[in-house]
Design goal:
The chain is an alpha+beta fold. It contains ten helices and five strands, in the order E-H-E-E-E-E-H-H-H-H-H-H-H-H-H. A five-stranded mixed β-sheet has the order 1-2-3-4-5, with helices on one face. The longest helix has 20 residues.
Length: 246
């Protein structure tokens, strides 16, 4: 954790981490800081204590909120906490119309992000529907903990599916990063969980004889799936790319 007196210039030039996120805490105001994600998003954060509990509050994004205004918001929140109030709970009340349950957030993530930015969004959706929602349906997204994710991944590993466990972690990590940037949740540390499965590069390729047998079988199957397999053999493209060709 880096601690320094934040200035407008330091905030503007704050380095973007290669992965995860970096937090810079202000030496001039205890608990107040700047969080920088690997996607370059900069958010103001505040750690505070109220009613005997340590809490964390996201104050807003930079540059929409400048340093001076963010400090003022942090001071107001600290004053509320000193009076026994919880500024984080007040903010949750203000968000009551936003999606709270995990399945609603996943649906919004797929529609507004995955379908636009990820050509293999159907695979991501399938991962959520088969591996995540059966375990967590009905759960508020803010209730998820590191233990929940470890339990989910351990169950998949116990089935002998290390590659799927890695895919699930990647999908959940992307979802939580997206949700946190929109202030749907505050899952500090959850997205730093390491991939549970050890992946080995596969170098097995089909022989000419095997390819010929597959080609003949695809010819018998015909349109559309047989043709998809034949195009895959000829081009080496990704399955989803060929399947979605016009």
């Amino acid at each position: 954790m880096a601690t320094t007196k934040l200035t407008d210039l330091k905030v503007k030039k704050a380095a973007i981490p290669a992965s995860g996120r970096t937090e810079y805490y202000d030496a001039a105001l205890l608990g107040f800081g700047l969080r920088v994600s690997e996607r370059g998003t900069k958010s103001w954060i505040l750690f505070y204590r109220t009613n005997g509990r340590n809490r964390r509050l996201t104050l807003g994004r930079y540059p929409a909120i400048g340093l001076a205004d963010a400090r003022e918001l942090a001071r107001d929140a600290l004053h509320s906490a000193a009076k026994g109030l919880d500024p984080g709970a007040e903010k949750v009340d203000a968000r009551s119309n936003r999606p709270q349950l995990l399945h609603d957030v996943i649906n919004e993530f797929i529609e507004s992000y995955a379908k636009i930015h990820n050509r293999s969004w159907r695979e991501t959706q399938r991962v959520f529907e088969r591996e995540v929602l059966p375990r967590w349906t009905g759960r508020p997204i803010r209730s998820l903990t590191r233990s929940d994710i470890h339990d989910l991944l351990d169950g998949i590993m116990a089935r002998g599916r290390p590659y799927m466990a890695n895919r699930v972690l990647a999908a959940v990590r992307k979802l939580l990063n997206w949700a946190e940037e929109r202030d749907y949740c505050d899952n500090a540390g959850i997205t730093r969980i390491k991939a549970p499965g050890r992946e080995v590069t596969r170098d097995r390729v089909l022989t000419d004889e095997e390819l010929a047998r597959i080609w003949r079988s695809a010819e018998q199957i015909g349109y559309p799936f047989g043709r998809i397999v034949q195009i895959l053999i000829l081009t080496g493209q990704r399955r989803e790319e060929v399947a979605q060709m016009k």
